[in-house]
Amino acid sequence: MKRPSERSLRILIALLSIAIILLSVFTFLVKNGFSIKDIFPKAIVSEFSAQPEGPAPAVIIDAGHGGWEPGAINGSIQEKEVTLAIALEVEKILKEKDISYFMIRNDDTYVSLEDRIKIANEKACRLFVSIHNNSYTDPAQRGVLTAYNPYSDTGKDIAGIMQSRLENLGMRNRELMPRPNLYVLRYTSMPSILLEIGFLSNKKDLKLLTDGDFQQKCAQQIVLGIEDIAAKYFPDEVKNSAKD
C-alpha cells in the first residue's frame, strides 16, 4: 500500500486544524446566545412562498411598536400612535377593496418582535408590510424611505415598487435602504418591507404625520403599493390591481 506523501499529510493536518478552529468558534457562539440565524444571516432569505393550503391573507399590516413600547417620541407624540393611525386607515381601504389582510395589532397592544414573526409565518401571507416613523438627533433630517432585506431576490424590487408610491406623499424621498439585520425583515418567511414614513424629530414631517388627512393619504399610497406588488407577484389573489 502506497503511503501518503509528506505534502499530503501537511495539507490534511492543516484542513483538520481549520475544521477544529471553526467548530470551536461555532460552539463558543452558540453557548453565548447566538442562534444559527445570527451566525449565518445570508441563510435567512424571504422569498415569495408557494400558495398555502386553505385561506391566507394576501398581506399582513404591522403597525410598529405599541403598548409599553412607544417607539420614537417627540413631546406628547409617540410613534406607536402614528403608526397605528396609519395602519387603521390602511385597513379601511383594504376592506373597501376586498383585499384579504391581517393586522398584527389594531389597538395599543404590545406585540413582541418574535410574536410578530410567528404570527406572520403562521398566517402564510404573501407580503408583510411594517409601518414605522423615523427619528434622529439632527432635526433637519426628514423624508420617507422603504427598507428591505438585501439577501432577498425580490426584496429590493418590492421595496422600489412601494417607494414609487410613497414618493407621492410630497415628503423628501430618501429612497431605498438595505437593512439585513432588522428582525421583521430577516425572519419572516415571506417578502417583507419596512416603511419609515417621516421623522417625528422634524417639525415639518411631524405636522404632516399628526394630520388625519395626511394619514389617509399615506394609507392610500401604501395600498396602491400593495396592489402594484400584487399585480406583479400574486395577481390572482388581489383582483383590484392598482390603475394609474
UniProtKB/TrEMBL annotation:
Gene Ontology MF terms: N-acetylmuramoyl-L-alanine amidase activity
Keyword Cytoplasm (UniProt): no
A GO CC term attached to the entry: outer membrane-bounded periplasmic space
Entry keyword Nucleotide-binding: no
GO biological process, one term: peptidoglycan catabolic process
MurNAc-LAA domain location: 117-227
Gene3D superfamilies with a match to the protein in the record: Zn-dependent exopeptidases (3.40.630.40)
Pfam families xrefs: Amidase_3 (PF01520)
Transmembrane segments annotated in the record for this chain: 12-30
Keywords: Hydrolase, Membrane, Transmembrane, Transmembrane helix
Protein name: N-acetylmuramoyl-L-alanine amidase
